[in-house]
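re the bet — no i am not wrong, look at it urself. input seq straight from the record:
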Amino acid sequence: MTSKSHFWLVSAQVVTGNKKGHENRNSMNALLNTEKGVVTRNDLARAQRAVLGRFTTSCPQIPGHEITDVFMMGISHLGEMTQEEFHAGFNDVATATAEPANQAG
């Protein structure tokens, strides 16, 4: 039997900018799962890494821009369940549990 964990949806905004002061903002979501029903400081750091991983793989990079900040806009608790329950009907569970770039496990 697979153990249950808590799943969270993280909404964040990645800010990039250049030396001339031009700024660009990209909003995105990422998944976080924890053993307990709370989000700790370390979990927030994992969520930020998941957001940045998704940003670097899915958003076009603007020449001359660097990441200046990441804002966590919200974290929603989706519930306590197994990986299979969470991913049911979405994808093949074998590939879904491989922890994609936007998931901090």
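see?? The mean pLDDT is 87. told u. also DSSP finds three helices and four strands in the chain. so pay up
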